[in-house]
């Protein structure tokens, strides 16, 4: 066996067929894609890559597979390939519908994986088997590696989770004839520490205000080239950080020039979660990129300079869905852990929308009282209807007891399980649907704020 020395996991051993996959152009491209986008502009040592993370995810997937008796080889090779569809600067450039999972699977179909068919790996990455849930699930190898790795390379201590203890606490259980991954009751503290680590890393690193500004500038730089037909969205699946930066420099893109000089925009206004009504949160969470660009054009026409609108992604918070397994019962982590419940609210409160303007214009804009009024007026004029089949169902039923019952009704209305869970999460996050736990089941009802706004 070959061995690779890793900064986090030390010796990672590889079979010959795994080394062949690693030496493919698809994996080697990841050597030049930064794991955390433009975070290095704030944390200078954050130059680690998707390549290292893929190896680390493979290593942890192997350990989990051993613990729960899953197919170790399938988990390893799938984990190794799980990020090959990423664009340059990772999640920063998932723009205009770019989906790294889609492009990753498209690449896998063309690869020769020796011991596995592409369909086996794609099935795994689609989470259609136990091995898929090891890589990406409620408590998974992907998340555990990036917390440890990002913490180490940014020089922060927030993401230092107790990996051996988490692994010892993992188990499996059956639910509706499906095998799922859970955590033994004795492992609650280790999972709580993972939640704390994730929250602190998001607060201090991933959502650092300067990082978000730099990411937004890079997004707009690339979007400009795509809109001017100098670049196709699909090109991003073949480029790495080096080739993209070179392209932007050759194009004399003014935003790339500013990023090169670290002449970053400054924060003009931030609207926190509590500053917005549930309906306003829903509106901003559902704006597409073309609508955001239209708003930014209005800002430019009013103020004569760039004013970029940055809307946080809604946090998925999959860890809160972890099931705690004991001899007596199986319950969701949120139901048994006060720490998990409080962290959920803290995570929600991190969400915000922000507006950025060039450094040279920021003082004038901030000192002009009319600017905030004009921005507020433009944002209030967004023409948007709240359209949701789940809201329609709750308007009819008033309240529904049990998530399973809610899903059953939704499926009768033609809503797929994936659509149901995604939309329900977003509606609860925005505060349009209330979710209460009565000790046995979750109860769903509409919030009072929606009745006067729903169309």
Mean pLDDT, all residues:
93
Radius of gyration, whole Å: 23 Å
Strand content: 5-15%
Shape: globular
The chain-level structural class is alpha+beta
Number of structural units classed as domains: 3
Helical coverage, percent range: 40-55%
Q: What is the CATH architecture descriptor of the largest domain?
A: Orthogonal Bundle
Oligomer: single chain
CATH topology of the largest domain: the name is: Hypothetical protein af1432
Query: Briefly, what CATH class of the largest domain?
Result: Mainly Alpha
The largest pleated sheet is described as: 4 strands, mixed
Note the gap between the termini: 63 Å
- SS field, number of helical segments: 22
Strand order of the largest sheet: 3-4-7-8
What's the total count of β strands? 12
What would CATH call the homologous superfamily of the largest domain? Hypothetical protein af1432
**Parts with pLDDT < 50 across at least 5 consecutive residues:** none
